[in-house]
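Entry: Heterokaryon incompatibility protein-domain-containing protein
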Amino acid sequence: MDNACSIVSPSQGPRGLQLWVEAYLAEDANSLDASSDVILAVESDQLDLDGVEQRVEELVAQADVSDSFCGHCTHLLHHWPGPGIKSFQSTVAGPLDTKEIEASSRAGCLMCSFLFSRLKMTDHLLTFRKIEARLAQLQHAASSSLSVMNVGTAGTQILWANFPGRVATDVNGPEARSVQLESHVLSITAYLWHECIDPLDFTEVWLSTCWDHHPQCRVRSELELPTRLVSFAGDVVKVVETCSLDEMPQYATLSYCWGGANFKKLTDETYAQYTGQIPNEDLAQTFKDALEIAKRLGVLYIWIDALCIIQDQPDQSDWLKESGRMHFVYGGSHINLAASAAVNVHEGFLSKDSFLNPPSGGFHARATTSEYSEVRNFHSRFVYEESCSDTHLGGRAWAFQERLLSPRTIHFGPYGVFWECRSMRRSQFVPNGFPGHPSLRLVWPEDKELDWWAINQNYSKTKLTFGSDRLPALAGVAFRQHQVTKEQYLAGMWKETLVSHLAWRLSHHHGPLKRPEWRAPTWSWTSIDSATSFGRYMNLKDKKQYVHVIEAWTTPSGPNQYGAIKDAAIVIGYSSLIGTRLAKKDHNGIAQHHVRVQSETFPVEVDCLDEDGQEPDSSVYLLPVLSGWTGYRGSNIMPSNSENVASGDAGKGQRQMVIGGLVLRREANGQYFRLGSFHLSNIPGLSGFENGEGQGRDYHAEFFRAIDMAEEGVQSVAGTLDSEQVHTITIK
């Protein structure tokens, strides 16, 4: 491998550089990551980028790429590690030099292209090069390396790129997880897909295969047609009222970002013209591309919100009616086209580099070990989410709903073309399909209950132009869920699972948020603008429940009972309500709140500031909701290739016990409002903060002791956690 040093201007002198190298080589390789001090130290180094480029060009001329792989990768694939490596043990497959990888990538090596794309995507490329340069200046081995680990007995392998000069052995360690890949054994007759194929050719095959062979993806329920569609059956593109059509046609839908730029839409003023013909110059580029792809897929109608919903009406009457019909619109589509890589309606997707020349998202190859030959796919389990979820479009709330409701979607993402239906996930780089499902599976067959835990975790982090759309943009998903479960919907939650979900929390708590204008009750996660999580309360073992729902209701503000609301409340029966006072301290600029019960201090999480932007009043109440064993253990470490969840009695370590509940404020009228939540565990560091000595505390046990010690009337305790006496409160 090439270890030629690129000129670097280190932020330290020669002595400092020597000390850095000693510290870098002494650091535990399994603990290294981008936040390590020895890694942060290279950030200010200045690489000679012209020198790097010159060296890469020289190496391109020398690259020996044959049959889609360079000489180094060909040798590696002909001597692939596998036999003799025990499950969850790793071996170094070979060295990696970033300049050689880039050169071979440009020359057409599939493996180098994939490795190079992952280094760039994870922002490790420059860091690796700076470390290579520092080490090379002091004549240390400067190359990174590729490690391979067998996982289980089915041929699955985890691969990762090591920091230059270091080798990690822990697949769960931060270094191994930084640039991590997966490989799975395919049928020995599996096609390798090494030739260049138009990705739209793939989409035609995928759609045909899904339509003919995926019964889970077929629409079984009777769905109403969209009110309007854009027709392009002939040379004329126009808006048609579907009531005028003799039969229900197959139609496509479009998921895209409007962006901030102006573009032509269907309005009361353009309606007469657009129902006759939409001028070509009035079609934004994304619309033109969508029509071209739909026509290639054999579909002659498409639903596009800006052209099928009358926009800019003073009373928003058409939008209010049509926005509540998304379950029918997207649920009944033949194919949904997602412009995932475009940030506005003018970008389109057929002319973007991500479509014409996308970075590698994986490859297939024949690998030969010392004992056998096999066909493997190589991919990153993160590539799919990076192209379908972690995009500008994927982060929009309306697009999230469109993705979940559609039976099949083609994503035109930053890593090329991806396919998602209720049965399979594919890409132009992994056309036979990704193994398994994402860690948070979102798209399910029409008759299957959605995972509302995953809905909450993913939808809550999406963005909206108008915060008031938080419930309307989820209405179609809620309606679809109700069709399966028949449960009562409550502003983003369900009455039948309300107790398990009441103690939701902010996913990343950095102090109280500004409370948005009212759109949902405080007990619902849809009331705030933040990523939230239901935590681990759904599947508690040895669960104890300290509240029950006596009554719950919402009042819709319009005709859609799953959309916007104007009022809501729950009446809760409880066995314990602890009055206390809220205190705050700042830690590194972040507000940390706590309360005192008896002589003990416990951390709590405050969701929002008061309506006037001030800290909430200090008089609060703690309402315990649930307690039990999460199924996790304090020292459990599981391999990251699968679900990465320790459950049951697997592994060693202390059981993680938790009690969760609400932090409430009492109003003058006797009603209560949620201020936040508390989550008290016996595992150090998971409850919010440590005690003054810096030692982890068993908050779980201490809280129960404090409650048991409390006498009637002291701390305003109404009952105890084991009391059969039930009191009621109303939470708004």
